[in-house]
Design a protein that fits this description.
Layout lengths: L2 H22 L4 H10 L1 H23 L18 E5 L6 E2 L1 H9 L6 H10 L3 E2 L3 H10 L3 E9 L3 H11 L10 E4 L6 H8 L3 E7 L14 H10 L8 E3 L7 H4 L10 H10 L4
Parallel strand pairs: 1-4, 1-6, 4-5, 6-7
Antiparallel strand pairs: 2-3
Bound molecules: magnesium ion.
Length: 271
């Protein structure tokens, strides 16, 4: 074989090896996404969460002194009732987006995320549609409070509608992010006009302000401080794929290379 031909062959073979290495590179998302997509345990957990929510809703409706929002102040007993749900991994299942990240060895980017959101094809989390419609039929306004950016409001509304979620025609119930990712101020605003019966989310920032971008230790302390809320006024859905729980492990330094994030995560393992 002539020398250039050998070189070309070596190049092509190494390219193939490179490709197969690429597709089999370990990815921390793999088990998490498969659990959400394939395990009957995830499905059961979500149904369980929404069943609890449905049972609590009636109780909350009847008790005019009931509020689930720490931001609710003043005389709220006569305000119309509302529930506040987060969107991603609470009512909409974005696991196909995560699955694509795994297969393409890609990391989260706003460009990829916007593209996925604009497709508006996320399916509903099990139990979510039934719960939201149950609430709406009882005259409860259903708010979707999300940290999706404002330019995704229309696409989000379209996706929610397509998936069967109730949307109000009287008031804007899809509340996206304008400035801060802290949902406290937006909850406060809703609480000025509605009595908040329940908060439902997958990230603890969906329940109280202090969780957002806080260190793990503080997040754990807050869980204990609000012990009485879990399962009574606040309903949490499991999300092992992403969230502040994971970002806290690398101190919310999103720009760190994946290998550095992984090194920091390994240090957090309890032995
Ligand atoms: Mg979420």
């Amino acid at each position: 074989m002539r020398k250039p031909l050998i070189l070309i062959t070596v190049f092509i073979v190494s390219l193939f090896i490179g490709c197969s290495e690429q597709s089999s590179r370990p990815n921390d998302l793999l088990n998490a996404v498969l659990w959400m997509q394939q395990s009957s345990e995830y499905e059961a957990s979500a149904l369980q969460a929404y069943k609890i929510a449905q049972n609590l809703l009636d109780k909350a409706l009847a008790d005019k002194n009931w509020t689930a929002a720490l931001e609710q102040t003043g005389d709220y007993a006569q305000l119309p009732p509302a529930v506040i749900l987060d969107v991603d991994e609470t009512v909409l299942d974005n696991s196909p987006f995560e699955a694509n990240l795994i297969l393409n060895n890609a990391s989260f980017s706003n460009t990829l995320w916007d593209k996925w959101c604009n497709e508006a094809r996320a399916e509903a989390v099990p139990g979510a549609v039934e719960f939201c419609n149950y609430a709406a039929e009882k005259g409860v306004t259903v708010f979707y409070l999300t940290n999706r950016r404002q330019h995704l409001t229309e696409a989000t509304r379209r996706n929610l509608q397509k998936a069967g979620f109730p949307l109000s025609d009287k008031t804007e119930t899809v509340i996206t992010r304008t400035d801060t990712g802290d949902k406290g101020p937006r909850r406060h605003k809703i609480a000025e006009n509605y009595r908040i019966l329940l908060l439902i989310g997958d990230n603890n920032g969906d329940f109280a302000s202090g969780f957002t971008k806080a260190p793990s230790a503080q997040r754990h302390k807050m869980v204990k401080d609000y012990r009485d809320y879990w399962g009574t006024k606040w309903i949490v859905l499991p999300n092992p794929s992403y969230g502040d729980w994971e970002s806290a492990l690398y101190e919310y330094n999103y720009k760190l290379p994946e290998t550095d994030k992984r090194a920091l995560k390994l240090k957090k393992l309890r032995l």
